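Question (not urgent): is this output format expected?
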Amino acid sequence: MSGAVIKQAMVLAAGRGERMRPITDAQPKALVKVVGRALLDHALDALADAGVELCVINTHYLGEQIKAHVAQRRTPRIVLSPESTLLDTGGGVKNALAHFGDAPFYTINSDALWLDGPSPMLARMARHWEPSRMDALLLLHSTVAAHGYDADGMGDYYLTPDGRARWRGRSGVAPFMFAGVTVCDRRLYAQAPQGPFSQLLLWNKAQERERLFGLRHDGEFFHVGTPAALEDTEAYFARGGGRRRTME
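Got this back:
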């Protein structure tokens, strides 16, 4: 395992968040507040705590709101990556690669919300990143233990005993969901197509090369994808169900 600190990241914040409507009719999903703080700020605060110095944020839907929101932040340093046309998750990251050089970086979905386990999750991801045998390391969480995850959700991945991630494909049921955080570097995008595409395309290719790995989150994860899930998450913290520095 690596002992390096990962110092750069990208937060994916360009989408509208259709399943969160009508809340997102007037604001991007990244700025929806959970426990008094925007989802985007929960992610940025965790990145700052982990030692990340540079964070790229892609924008599209109501991007000027995000630009104004992050204007006063000092850590991490923010660079915006506006998209005139939505590039999807993979296309958005590929469009921002010039900011990262050859060093590894995190990607974080702006709606990913977690509580750390015994040690900070981002630091665990960095320790487990091994570029000699990995093209991507995905954060995974048990479907049955994730707060707000649809009970009928089919999951996303299996984990092998040696830590490799296996996508369930278009059928079947998998025990782990993708929890919105990855570690990778620019090699993952070397043969990526132009224009919009999902990161899943590249993860599947990494899996074919036996270079897709997963790390099971040892804390709590909140799937804040709908107004109902947002309400449930707020209720959980109101009951004193968890604590996090950015929620204090």
